[in-house]
Amino acid sequence: MRLYVAETMALTKLTSRFRRLLQRPGSIDLGPYERLTQLVAEAEESVQGLSDDELTEVVTEMRTTGGLDEDNLIEFLALAREAGKRAIGERAFDGQIVGALALLRGRIVEMATGEGKTLAGAFAAAGYAIGGRRVQVMAVNDYLAQRDAEWMGPIYALLGVTVSHIGQASTPEERRAAYQAEVCYAPVTELGFDVLRDRLVTDVADRVTVKPDVALVDEADSVLIDEARVPLVLAGATRTEELDDDVVALVRTLRAGVDYEIDGDGRTVALTDKGTDTVEKHLGDINLYEDENLDRLTQINVALHAEVLLRKDVDYLVRDGKVSLINNSRGRIAKLQRWPDGLQAAVEAKEAVPISDSGEVLDSITVQALVSSYPTLCGMTGTAVVVGEQLQEFYNVEVAVVPPNKPNIRIDEADRLYLTIEQKNVALVEHIKEIHETGRPILIGTHSVEESEQLSERLEAAEVPHVVLNAKNDAEEAAIVAEAGVPETVTVSTQMAGRGTDIRLGGRDGSHDKDRAAELGGLYVIGTGLHASQRLDDQLRGRAGRQGDPGGSLFFASLGDELVTRYSVTSGLRPSPDETGRLTDRKAIAMLEHSQRVADGANAELHRTTWSYHRLTGQQRAILLDTREKVLTEDLAAEELAERAKERYDELVEEIGEDKVKDAARKIALHHLDRKWTDHLAYLADLREGIHLRSLAGGIVHMKPIDEFNKSAIASFDPLIADAWNDAAETFKEAEITADGFDEEASGVPRPTATWTYLVNDNPFGTEADRILGRLRNAIKPGAAAESEEILPEEFEELPEELRDLDDDDLSDELPEELREADSGDDASDAKKADDKD
């Protein structure tokens, strides 16, 4: 075993050096951290004789405001390791010390599942605090924020560091107190919502947050990549987004392939010329593309998108009379999340549930913009290398890969590829039944609620006892996952890759036949299909083989899977499956791998596109917030209004005193700045959707939508602050300002009576890359040459490299059934179809 460990460590170091040579992500040299870790071990003996009070006192004496120097850092980590051993009974492994050092140097740390990221993160957070910094540990949900804060709490107490946590149910007073702690654990969404609420306060005392300093992100790849483009929204002034019943009824009569077409990638849907004629005639012979009918066109498009592309039990659930979105990366109900208002209303109309109040957007911020506001960013996850380039591109942070404390002995079998989905499912159930009969615990990862329930039905028919974990019963998650490592257990889970819960052999406490589970080979992970990212596959595999435990993994796939049908633009296959439908030829396997690379590239491009739209908005928001801050904390409002309405200002000062006038001026100015920003956001939302719709309608394809968006956005924002001051002056001249104060309601500038927060599933219609990819697919379909759209050179260059990686050999007309949207036979048959079409 020692030889195996040594070989594994040597291989890890060799891989790291090779990455550095190629300048690839994950290339941070761990050598300096490992040398410091050895010094920490040597210093450990000297702190073991300290009493608890003495340990706390020593750490307190180390406190500084300039960060810990190397000597103090070594001593601190020795004290932290001792505190962990005393407080929670866990002595940190060397790998955890290395991880803490990397976090303290602003890295994203990759540590395998079960290797103790939480403890390493607590050491780093405490280290930052001792060095005079305030840390916010960003979790993915309330449960993990509370669990980790309470679990690590005794360690922080021994080190003399204050710790707190917040969640959705926290009151403003609780939040204000929590943010004052040196280390605060919180869901990333709650941090964003508090920032948004603080941006609208009219009194400094109403703020709850503190100035951002250090962000330590748990599940960093999920937060920084998967959720980075999700806008967090603060809304107010309740209204209802009604969708005309006739539009809903009309859309349901439209026919696929006749009245509308779905892009090859399955992300967008658009009316055909015939469909446009049908809709225009039904609506009274109007021209949908005239400016006055833009609202109608928007309603038709969102209703069509909701009806055709959004799938119940895949994209959303209907529960308790409400439409609830499903978080695609975690398989859970996405609490407080919704689509942009028009699309949300369209789905609710589709499902005949009450249309929810949407309100107007008062402000918004993306997770990426929120995280980027912190001067220091670090984080930890089990899968960072795969997205290392994106982490460098979007956050300028590097990845440090920490080798496991014990070698990973999990056996990852080669993917099994089948021709059709049905053949895959038959083989999948047979394999599950075969493994279950041995008693080995099995964890099965599915992609959607619908798929998990369909698999459950097949397993019942095969008499395989099992439990199901999906968005319909996610409240039972902890109990279900805790027992997934018990022999005889079969657990079917939706998006297990994003659930972040440790699975121990033998159950939560290892008391249920742990030894037998290990003898049987450990937890066996089965994937029902590859994910759109290799990183998610790796996360699912990583549920097995924790801390040197035995384990195994196997993924099933088919050429009919959505990954292939949506993202594969290659063909040329002449598949030769065996009697079970299994494919083993190199070209078929390569096609599956290529589809995953394309999907990864498309998702990265979606991130870039979304960020490009939000970047300018963020810059404009910063300008406005600078003015707003001066109004809130200084006398800028009084100075401006005294200049613009001098007579009125002087008169009021004489009547009621300068303090009351300054207070009124501040509230009036804040109202108009906020009002102008709200109107600007609404304009930008309409602008972005309009530019997109022009693209869907076959507009000028060589025009870059982002350039047109930026031009219009800049023109709209340029006069915004000046206009706000002009409006504020007009309001000030007529406002109800008396010795009793400023009457906002009577003066026509009321604050929102209620506000609420939610997330938006941004850009649901896809990007230019999605649409170009779809047209590429259509261009290589049999008989499609006559009607495929031209892809301009400048459009093709905008695609990510993965989407341009097409070989001429791949453009053949022979595909398995699931890869074709139209029937295709031999070359003669295809030629006849083309002739008939002509």
What's the short story on this structure?
The chain is an alpha/beta fold. The chain is built from 32 helices and 25 strands.
What can you see in these coordinates?
With 838 residues, the protein is an alpha/beta fold. The chain folds into 4 domains: 24-235 and 368-401, P-loop containing nucleotide triphosphate hydrolases (Rossmann fold, 3-Layer(aba) Sandwich), CATH 3.40.50; 245-356, SecA, preprotein cross-linking domain (Pre-protein croslinking domain of SecA, Alpha-Beta Complex); 411-584, P-loop containing nucleotide triphosphate hydrolases (Rossmann fold, 3-Layer(aba) Sandwich), CATH 3.40.50; 601-768, Helical scaffold and wing domains of SecA (Orthogonal Bundle). 50% of the residues lie in helices and 12% in strands. It contains 32 helices and 25 strands. The strands form 6 sheets. Strands 15, 16, 17, 18, 19, 20, 21 and 22 form an 8-stranded mixed sheet that branches. A 7-stranded parallel sheet has the order 3-4-2-5-13-1-14, with helices on both faces. It has a 4-stranded mixed sheet with strand order 11-25-6-12. Helix 21 (534-541) links the parallel strand 20 and strand 21. Helix 13 (294-308) packs across helix 14. The longest helix has 48 residues, at 586-633. The protein is flat. 47% of the residues are buried. Residues 1-10, 18-23, 695-701 and 763-838 have low confidence and may be disordered. Residues 98-257 form the Helicase ATP-binding domain. Residues 635-662 form a coiled coil. Residues 15-585 form the SecA family profile domain. Residues 801-838 are annotated as: Disordered. Its main location: membrane.
